[in-house]
Amino acid sequence: MFFLTEIEHRLRLPPKLLDRPLEDAIKGELESIFLDKVIAKTGLCVSMYDIKSIDGGFVLPVEGAPTYTVVFRMVMFRPYVGEIIAAKLKNSNKKGLQLSLGFFDDIYIPAFALPDPSHIEPHDDDPKQVKWVWTYNDLELSYDDENVIRFQVTSVDYPPIPLEQEEGSKPFAPMVVTGLLNSDGLGPISWWV
């Protein structure tokens, strides 16, 4: 789920930061550029781990600021296919469930990946949402907001950036994790205690 990746980046350091120690100034700039951003095919940047090297410091013509080539390592989030993860329910609709890890909300469980037979019921609190219920023998087991849900990752996708977005559409997600719940031990943890 979490791993280190090495990145090489050419960084222009603003003159206002030149009074700070070089490594601290560069680390602050790299964090503002990379943290909470998704790098395609790599994952979500979670934390700066360390700086391995800083080269350069050249002031290019008409720039007025030094440019450095920095090699550093970042802690990245990218689950692997087949990994079992526990997350909280964020949203449910006719298409399935949306789960959240707190720092990452683009986890989707499509309706066909829920245990069979599952059906929809009206949500008690919110008329815009629905509640998914799994019928197991004579039991009606529901996916509730307070439950932690264990799911298995089936894919991690990096959709292309849209040129235009329709008004009222959901925000663009640069990384989407898809999972399933139709296997033993998956679903709300309270089901399996």
From TrEMBL:
Residue ranges constituting the RNA polymerase III subunit Rpc25 domain according to the UniProt record: 83-192
GO biological process: transcription initiation at RNA polymerase III promoter
InterPro entries the UniProt entry points to: NA-bd_OB-fold, RNA_pol_III_Rbc25, RNA_pol_Rpb7-like_N_sf, Rpb7-like, Rpb7-like_N
Gene3D superfamilies membership: Nucleic acid-binding proteins, RNA polymerase Rpb7-like, N-terminal domain
Spans traversing the lipid bilayer: none
Compartments it resides in: Nucleus
UniProt cross-references to Pfam families, sorted A to Z: RNA_pol_Rbc25, SHS2_Rpb7-N
Domain of life of the native organism: Eukaryota
Domain RNA polymerase Rpb7-like N-terminal: residue ranges: 8-61
Chief place where the protein resides: nucleus
The entry's keywords: DNA-directed RNA polymerase, Nucleus, Transcription
Any one cellular-component term (Gene Ontology): RNA polymerase III complex
Tagged with keyword Electron transport: no
Family: Belongs to the eukaryotic RPB7/RPC8 RNA polymerase subunit family.
Function noted in UniProt: DNA-dependent RNA polymerase which catalyzes the transcription of DNA into RNA using the four ribonucleoside triphosphates as substrates.
Protein's name in the database: DNA-directed RNA polymerase subunit
Species: Chenopodium quinoa (Quinoa)
Gene name tied to this protein: LOC110717653
